[in-house]
Amino acid sequence: MIHQSAIIHPSSIIEEGAIIHDNVHIGPFCFIGAQVEIGARTLLKSHIVINGITQIGEDNQIYQFASLGEVNQDLKYAKESTRIEIGHYNQIRESVTIHRGTIQGKKVTKIGNSNLFMINVHIAHDCIIGDHCVMANNVTLGGHVRVDNHTIIGGMTAIHQFCIIGTHVMIGGCSGVVQDIPPFIIAQGNHATPFGLNIEGLKRRGFSRSSVHAIRDAYKILYRSSKTVESAKEALKALAAEHPIINEFVDFLIRSQRGIIR
User: Fold this and answer.
1) Quick check: is 77 in a domain?
2) Could you give the subunit structure recorded for this chain?
3) Whole-number Å distance between alpha carbons of 81 and 83
4) DSSP helix/strand/coil, 236
């Protein structure tokens, strides 16, 4: 179904069954598969392939040579019915690739809202990306990576499969991430290590002075004491009773499976 207000260049191929909502603009030489749905006011520049079971929300901008929803690069994949879901207001720049999920994961690769993926970013199968994230040129995510809200990842950074990146994290360019990165932290290097807190980012996003001070205290517990992760977790729970924002640390440590960067 193609809405009558959609604008589609005659050189583009839209397979029967695709759903194109109102005021979508599809430029030249695009291919849209039969199981694709594209939300209102989304713009496809040119030379874009969207395939598989792919749902794209409203007001996204997708640039040339992007490939979305294609078969993943997991050798176990046997053409099972898996998908990708993309929210609203995302900018997906040139040559970005986002692959469909696997049955070993949750069958879905999921992108939130208001993200910027710069040139040549690769998001592998089963990744879950939150909202308001920025990934600079040539960032590569392995399978099953989770990136929480308001995270910034510098160019040429690679993140190992199954890693979790906490909210408001900033990762410097050319880093290699092989373990989980707790919330609010600046990390850099190969392998990535912590370099303090993303204080400037917290201020820009309106965190109160008391919350920032509490986050500093939590960082000292986790990284400036001799505590094990388990004993640090108990100390953080006590701090969270007075400052609920610290529950971000506690919940993250509970979720972590690969261990945290130290």
Assistant:
1) yes
2) Homotrimer.
3) 7
4) helix
